[in-house]
Specification:
With 447 residues, this protein is an alpha+beta fold. It is built from ten helices and 19 strands. Strands 2-3-5-4-6-9-7-8 form an eight-stranded mixed beta sheet, sandwiched between helices. A hairpin with a 5-residue loop joins strand 15 and strand 16. Helix 2 packs across helix 4, helix 4 crosses helix 10 and helix 7 crosses helix 10. The protein is globular and about 65 Å long. It starts with 9 loop residues before the first helix and ends with a strand.
Amino acid sequence: MTERAPRRSRLRRSALSAAAVVTLAAALLTPAAAASPTTPVAVPSAAAAAPDIPVANVKAHLAQLQSIATANGGNRAHGRTGYKASIDYVKAKLDAAGYTTTLKTFSYNGSTGYNLIADWPGGDTSHVVMAGAHLDSVTGGPGINDNGSGSAGILETALAVSRAGLTPSKHLRFGWWGAEEYGMVGSKNYVNSLSAADRSKIETYLNFDMIGSPNPGYFTYRYDSALDALFRDWFAGLGISTEQDFEGDGRSDHAPFQDAGIRVGGLFSGADYTKTSAQAAKWGGTAGQPFDRCYHSSCDTSANINDTALDRMTDAIAYAIWTLSAGSTTPPTGTVFENTADVQIPDNGAAVTSAVTVTGRTGNAPAALQVGVDIKHTYRGDLVIDLVAPNGTSYRLKASSSDSAPNVQTTYTVNASAVAANGTWKLKVQDVGPQDTGYIDSWKLTF
């Protein structure tokens, strides 16, 4: 996972804001930007056939990546021999399993970078389900949890597809990204290289960055409510309560896909944030310590893995791949109330609101009220977003953070079952930092 970006200086923020505006304008002209991130997932009965992925197989891949790092200066970083050897190892496994593999090159920092794309034959290529993970490490260590774990997890899932002779309805694609540690360079290059038509064919992108942390948490990406629920429900079947991830916002390879209008989901076991007492009570492990004390360090070796977390996470990956590739997506079945009027957000100023009036409902709002938000903004880390119910109850959707990416385009799920449905609901947005520009483009409630 990419290091958190430091708070930007005044001059640099202005430059990035201008770039973000250009990027935003291009995205609005791209058909892929219209892709809906709120589509529920219909889980077919075939999903039950997803295999149990042997954790020993996943760990065997990690042992190989460790050996590669040891033989190549202790790391598998972009531009180093250890990274190319890692790509070659993964590609050989996939070629032998019957995948169509493509090695895509790019340049960064004067070195050649590599992305590996693997397509499983068959399935409707106009509906692509893609899973990805970055394969590079930092220069200071072998990167076995970050991100050998995610890379090995999707590799073994891909090999399980081959062993099962899976014939999915949708087309399956896997990707291993280079130079993620320099700011998602490889995945950005891949997404930017696609035509608008090819981007629109990617129905779902799932990202797996750090899934074996030694003091693990169980975090799901929150950007798409249906994909979040897919993973959340799977873990609930194991008696494990998940939390939505905030630590990884804008710091891994889902971000370029999300910025291109592709719906994204994924799993994460935690990096350098500290596990709370409540999380330790829920998941075990040690409170007051990082989820991964060896994050971006030389001790991120094959000893820096929690086997139980790795096993559970990889089985969840397989479940998602089997489910999504065999299933179908359907439009929301609930009633939608939407406000599409633009509301400017003052820079470092007072909160603004946009109202939606709900009528014709009976009783209270649902326990899974969907709040779809589309905010165009040059620095979303400064935004604080709340949903205010008709009776004044406020639900915090997003707190301020160090996330330097633009825009908030996602769906939140709120338990509003204690509030009457009918009445005026408000989306409340405040910019709490200087030198930003943005506006509420639209938002909606789906009952």
